[in-house]
Amino acid sequence: MLLKLISCNVFQREASWCIARSPHVIDSDYTELGEHARSAGLRELIQSRIDATEASGKAYDAILLLFGLCGNATVGLQARRTRLVIPRAHDCCTILLGSRAKFTEHFGTAPSTPFSSAGYLERGNYFLRTSDGDNTGVQIGDAYKALVEKYGEEDAKYIWAEMNPDHGDSKAVFIDLPQTSHLGYAAQFQAKAAAAGKQAVQLEGNIRLIENLMQGEWDPKEYLIVPPAAVIEGVYDWDEVIRAKKT
């Protein structure tokens, strides 16, 4: 197959590793990590890359989107003539861990736990994944955004606090993938965590969601295949996450 990859560059090393091992021809295009600061802007950027791909004259079999919901940045995306394929993930934490089950295991009771990876330290010099517009906050993801949209800001705060009580946890998680562990970013993270008074926790990541995306092994339980002209719609649960909606 001839495939187009549009990805955040937080995954650039991992994606390159997988592209080199894929039997398919894959053209890659990366967005800057800092684009996540504005979900609407990131959505416009990704859509422009999709549009440019279809205008390129190449007959791609599919356009691969290596993003999660990312603050609703991928909601509403569509291609006119080409399939889109995207992991069923709220954000890059699930992708780095390799499955929604691993995300639930490690973050299910505390989804706001800050995390990092080699890509965050390398591409943005980020110590931790933080919330939009707040360098000290924690990215709480799309579940909270959905509550705000449904109930309003004040009620959403109350509901979120009841669902996710603050136990004073000072953990900071580094997701270390075997393919990039030789870079030494885990040690850098531990030093930064200690300086910030946080307990560094290291989890082993898994490249399988990235690799299967590049291999063309798109299990519908783990990837959403969006038909041409349909749009991506958020579900905001822990299982389906996203679905395709006909326009």
Task: Report on the architecture of this protein.
This protein has 247 residues and is α/β, with parallel strands linked by helices. It folds into 2 domains: 2-91 and 207-245, no CATH class; 93-204, no CATH class. 34% of the residues lie in helices and 20% in strands. The protein contains 9 helices and 10 strands. The strands form 3 sheets. Strands 2-1-3-4-8 form a 5-stranded mixed β-sheet, sandwiched between helices. A 3-stranded parallel β-sheet has the order 5-6-7. The protein has a two-stranded antiparallel sheet with strand order 9-10. Strand 1 (2-8), helix 1 and strand 2 (25-31) form a beta-alpha-beta unit. Helix 6 packs across helix 7 (153-163). 37% of the residues are buried. The model is unreliable at 130-142 and 162-168 (pLDDT under 50).
- The backbone outline, from C-alpha atoms, is globular
Distance between the termini: 27 Å
Percentage of residues in strands: 15-25%
Major β-sheet profile:
5 strands, mixed
Alpha carbon gyration radius: 18 Å
Number of strands: 10
Uncertain segments of ≥5 residues (pLDDT<50)?
A: 130-142, 162-168
User: Averaged pLDDT, please?
Assistant: 85
- Please tally the helical runs, counting DSSP H or I stretches of 4 or more residues: 9
* Assembly state (oligomeric): single chain
Query: Strand order of the main beta sheet, please?
Result: 2-1-3-4-8
Q: Structural class, please?
A: alpha/beta
Give the topology, please:
Elements: E1 2-8, H1 12-19, E2 25-31, H2 39-54, E3 62-66, E4 84-87, H3 92-97, H4 100-107, E5 115-117, H5 118-123, H6 142-151, H7 153-163, E6 171-176, H8 185-195, E7 199-204, H9 208-215, E8 223-226, E9 231-234, E10 242-245
Parallel strand pairs: 1-2, 1-3, 3-4, 5-6, 6-7
Antiparallel strand pairs: 4-8, 9-10
Helix pairs in contact: 1-9, 6-7
